[in-house]
Structure formats: structure tokens, C-alpha cells
Design goal:
It contains 13 helices and eleven strands. With 403 residues, the chain is an alpha/beta fold. It has two domains: 200 residues, 3-Layer(aba) Sandwich (Rossmann fold), CATH 3.40.50; 131 residues, Beta-Lactamase, CATH 3.30.450.190. It has a six-stranded mixed beta sheet, sandwiched between helices. It has a five-stranded antiparallel beta sheet with strand order 8-7-11-10-9. Helix 4 links the parallel strand 4 and strand 5. Helix 4 crosses helix 5 and helix 9 runs antiparallel to helix 13. The two termini are 28 Å apart. Belongs to the GTR/RAG GTP-binding protein family.
């Protein structure tokens, strides 16, 4: 368990895999007004800060880059609030540097996702105006970018007012996109409905519960999902149009290429097959250092169950320092193959009928599954064998995630 739980685990993404292939990370921008909690979210999830310690963080004065080495290579760019206040989307044909920050030397076309953080307990009307400018400007230069709105510090609101605030923000953002649709036109000058074309998700977040970990997990899933659905449909329509064209006599048109399965769909399929063969009620693939989940089966998401698994992961991580000296012992013996060595496992009983099982998959990932206690106790060997096969599958998908 020492490898997956060590607190000193390196997060630097690999640059070269030995075959002269450079791994291009996903660029994710974290923007929002001052004191919205952008840096606090990053430090709690990716630097293991305690939530109370974020109350004493100094304001971010310049853009900070964080390498989030999860299932994929992700670079988080924490943009200071002052850069957002000076941002303007008036000149769309000659875009300025991204938020006028000198250390972000890439174009809008290289941005994969934008996280906009706003304070749910503060006046957010001016922030929503800036959000509309960011969406319009980014979508002008990169129509495949994903947008995520973190309605942060939601723990300070009552449950009813919390969801009322989310609905109000969603409605105002949608109305702003509808009003901005006149700035765009389709290939044949047809009107564009910006509120339907933009990929936009809303998340209620707080550093004092698991909501921020779930939100960052959803962003990872979106990045692994691939192109937007509307873009995929446009590609399919284009292929159908080509196929429908008349051909010369005696010549057959080539068949349409099959749809490629996204990395997210592959992970879901692997988890579904594992749940079927092992009678798991729910299965998650966790990135243990960040406590985010990179994949799960397609059964309904249960927040209470996720909270239990999250607490179990946190409990296991507390023992990382006890096993840190074993790293030196491992370096003295012959290095074993990473996917044939003996990995850690653990179980905890939630009651007489339910067990949560933990299996280490590699140095970052772990499988957590919910299973009936009698099945777990009587089929331990079969479960371990199936998990070994599952570990090999995840290893192959992990290599595909880092082309």
C-alpha cells in the first residue's frame, strides 16, 4: 500500500515515454473573481490541504500552474482574479494573450476546459457578465472547449436556497448566451443557438465536503469523453451525406467508419463487466492522491455511498508515512514488473451484509467496490483473479490515455 498511499508521490507528468513521443497535457483554466476560492479548491484536491488551512491563503497575484497527474496528464492554470477583471472580448478577430498573463504561452485552441469559480454567498451579477464574455470569446476561437461553473462556498447556504441560487445562475447564464447568439452564424449564415452549442455544466462546490472532488472528477470524465455530442452528430451527418451521393455504375461507396469508443466509455464498460462477474453493487476507480474517481460503472450515483468510500480512502492515506521506508527496501531488490507484483488490498465491513473492498491497481489508481459480505468472504480467490484481469485492462487503457 505504500506506493499508492505515499504522501510524497510525484505529480510531474512524464515528458517522454522512451519512444520519442511527447505527452501533450490537457490545459484547464481556472478563472473567476477575487476571493472566490479558486486556489483553495486546487490545494484541497491536488495538494492535500486541510479545508481550514485554506482560510489563511494569500491572494493569487500571478498565474500558477499545477500538474495534475491523474489518469490523464492535466495542467491546471490558476488565473488571478485581477486578470479576469481586465479581460475583454470586444476584439474577437485579434485575440489578446489568454487573460494577459505572460507565462501562459499557448493559444485558445489549446485550451480543453475552462472552470469559472464564483462565490455563491457574494453578489455574482458582475461575475456572470464576465463569464458570458469568457464563454463568447473562448468559443469563438475554440468550439470544442468545455465550460464548468463552480458555484463555490455553497456549504454556507441552506439546502433550499442553495438550489435556488443554482437555478438562478443557470437561468441568467442561459439568457446571456441567447442574447450573444447574434454574434455567430452557421456555414450558410443560419442562426446559431449559442446556449445549445456550448458545452456548459454547473457544480455546487465546497472545500468542506466531497462536492469539489466530485466536480473535478466530472471534469476528468468530460476530458476523456472526447468530442462534443453535437460535433459528433455533425460528423455523422457529413458522412451520411457523402454516402448518399450517387455513385457511378458498378462502383460501390465505401462503408461509413465505425464510431470510435471514447476512453470514458471503455472505463465504464470495464467496470460494468467487473460488476457483473463479481456481483459488485458499485465500483469506482479512484486516483488515490487526489481522491477523485476517474471511472465507475453505470449504476446510479449514490452520494452517501461515495462519501463512505471517500472517507475510507482518506483513512488509508493516513498510514502512508508508516510504509514510506519500504521504498528504500524495494530499491535494494530486483525491480518487479509493475503489473505482476503483489498489490495491496483491504476490506471494511459497513454492516452485517455490506463490505467495501479496496484493491490497488497501480502506483496511483485503486479499485473500490461495494459487495455483499457473504459473497466477499466465500469467493476471495475468484475476486482477486478477476481484479488481476481488470488491472491489466486498466493498464492498457492507461497507456492509451497518454499517447
Amino acid at each position: 500500500m505504500e506506493d499508492v498511499l505515499a504522501s510524497s508521490l510525484s505529480r510531474d507528468p512524464p515528458i517522454d515515454d522512451g519512444n520519442n513521443k511527447v505527452h501533450v497535457p490537457h490545459n484547464v483554466l481556472l478563472v473567476g473573481p477575487r476571493r472566490a476560492g479558486k486556489s483553495s479548491l486546487c490545494k484541497v484536491v491536488y495538494e492535500s490541504y486541510q479545508p481550514n488551512d485554506t482560510l489563511f491563503l494569500a491572494p493569487t497575484m500571478r498565474t500558477q500552474k499545477l500538474d495534475a497527474n491523474t489518469f490523464q496528464n492535466i495542467q491546471l492554470w490558476d488565473v488571478p482574479g485581477s486578470a479576469l477583471m481586465s479581460f475583454s472580448s470586444s476584439d474577437q478577430h485579434h485575440p489578446p494573450p489568454i487573460f494577459a498573463t505572460p507565462n501562459m504561452d499557448f493559444a485558445w485552441a489549446e485550451v480543453n476546459a475552462i472552470i469559472f469559480v464564483l462565490d455563491a454567498q457574494d453578489d455574482y451579477f458582475e461575475a456572470l457578465s464576465k463569464l458570458n464574455q469568457v464563454i463568447v470569446h473562448a468559443y469563438t476561437h475554440n468550439k470544442s472547449v468545455h465550460f464548468h461553473v463552480f458555484i463555490n462556498k455553497a456549504d454556507g447556504l441552506s439546502e433550499d436556497y442553495r438550489y435556488d441560487t443554482q437555478r438562478d445562475i443557470e437561468q441568467r447564464v442561459t439568457e446571456g448566451l441567447i442574447d450573444s447568439s447574434h454574434e455567430f452564424s452557421g456555414p450558410n449564415d443560419e442562426p446559431v443557438q449559442l446556449d445549445q452549442q456550448v458545452t456548459l455544466k454547473f457544480h455546487l462546490t465546497s472545500v468542506f465536503d466531497t462536492s469539489v472532488f466530485i466536480a473535478f472528477s466530472r471534469i476528468q470524465h468530460q476530458l476523456m469523453q472526447g468530442p462534443q455530442e453535437n460535433q459528433a452528430l455533425e460528423s455523422m451527418d457529413s458522412a451520411s451525406a457523402v454516402t448518399a451521393m450517387p455513385s457511378s455504375p458498378g462502383k460501390m461507396l465505401p462503408p461509413k467508419p465505425p464510431r470510435m469508443v471514447s476512453l470514458m466509455e471503455a472505463l465504464e464498460t470495464a467496470c460494468n463487466l467487473l460488476c457483473t462477474s463479481c456481483y459488485f453493487e458499485k465500483a469506482y476507480i479512484f486516483d488515490v492522491p487526489s481522491c477523485t474517481f476517474v471511472g465507475c460503472d453505470t449504476s446510479p450515483f449514490d452520494l452517501a455511498l461515495f462519501d463512505v468510500m471517500f472517507q475510507y480512502i482518506q483513512f488509508l492515506r493516513q498510514f502512508s508515512d508508516l510504509y514510506s521506508h519500504l521504498r528504500d527496501i524495494d530499491s535494494m531488490v530486483e525491480k518487479k514488473d509493475e503489473y505482476t507484483r503483489v498489490w495491496s488490498s483491504s476490506i471494511v465491513r459497513l454492516g452485517n451484509d455490506t463490505t467495501v473492498a479496496f484493491w490497488q491497481l497501480d502506483s496511483h489508481l485503486a479499485l473500490l467496490a461495494v459487495i455483499q459480505s457473504d459473497i466477499q468472504s466465500t469467493n476471495t480467490s475468484i475476486l482477486d483473479y478477476n481484479v488481476d484481469l481488470f488491472r491489466t485492462t486498466i493498464a492498457e487503457l492507461h497507456r492509451l490515455a497518454r499517447p
